Amino acid sequence: MVKEEFKLDNQLCFRLYTASRLLTQAYHPLLSKYGLTYPQYLVLLVLWEKDAQPVNDIARRLLLETNTVTPLLQRMEKEGILTRAKGKKDGRQMIVSLTKEGKALQKKLADVPFTVGNAVVCESVTPKTFPDLFRMLDDIIGHLGGDT
Amino acid sequence: MVKEEFKLDNQLCFRLYTASRLLTQAYHPLLSKYGLTYPQYLVLLVLWEKDAQPVNDIARRLLLETNTVTPLLQRMEKEGILTRAKGKKDGRQMIVSLTKEGKALQKKLADVPFTVGNAVVCESVTPKTFPDLFRMLDDIIGHLGGDT
DNA sequence: TATATTTGCATCGCGAACGATATAAACAGA
DNA sequence: TCTGTTTATATCGTTCGCGATGCAAATATA
């Protein structure tokens, strides 16, 4: 018999990994309709909150490396969702701004949060228990260096 | 102002996605020492529990598609961690078995669950609250088709 | 038995993630 | 000012993750 700590059913990381994948898959049909991927949707969330940000700020907000975000932004630029322009103040920065089309996606995707929100609600995960789950996930993220 | 449901800080999926990535990163230094990735470690967990399984069973256990698992197993085969052999009962199946080296990794990685377990413990995530977190994640996974 | 369908696995293509490295702009100190 | 360092971004290579597709073995049906 394998030791308890090696059993798949006792792994927190496997649960997070699987839950993340499955929930991301729930977004897929809603986003692919507009040629978007889930990470691209995250970039839109960031830019809808605050337009015209340098690559670095977007990457930090998403806790991703710039070498992940740069190609992602390049693809979105090619799709006409955003523009990338050299910073005037600081020539090293690339300022990322939404195009008209990128802004318009907000209305087209208006139902996405609700659709996915409804899909995820189940026995022990409800609006009532969301704060508990959020707190635990935020603690994990903060603890593993997500706040640096 | 952007609507509440579009704020990054209100997204469950982004939290799961980030927590999953960061926790997986915590495994990285421990696994790369032996040339392993986290998904490869998951395959080992499955095979340590039950050796000599067809590709399909491994994929189902990890809730992954076979087109994800097959190349992963091929890489592990090339590393000498496991073998893949056509099934005798059913010629379509590929039976995946651990090599001596694959079995030996269990002892070499004995400290991994504890190291990562200690790393993740924080304010609201402790052995005491693990069951709550596990239940919520399992509900999400089961609800999103993870049991099919 | 001949044919159609299903099943198990593999291949291909693309978009993430990320470590390692490169490049140019900004900055700091002599 | 010249030079070394830091900072912001980009490029490259490898490994997932998965949709789409292909193929061969097994199974069902006529």
Structure description:
- Two copies of one chain form a homodimer.
- In chain A, 60% of the residues lie in helices and 8% in strands.
- With 148 residues, chain A is mostly helical.
- Chain A has a domain of 64 residues: Orthogonal Bundle (Arc Repressor Mutant, subunit A), CATH 1.10.10.
- A three-stranded antiparallel sheet of chain A has the order 1-3-2.
- In chain A, β2 and β3 form a beta hairpin.
- In chain A, α1 packs antiparallel against α6 and α3 packs across α4.
- The longest helix of chain A is centred in the N-terminal third of the chain and has 21 residues.
- The relative contact order of chain A is 0.11.
- The mean pLDDT of chain A is 96.
- Chains A and B meet through α1, α2, α6 and α7 of A and α1, α2, α6 and α7 of B.
- Chain A binds a DNA duplex (30 and 30 nucleotides) through α1, α2 and α4.
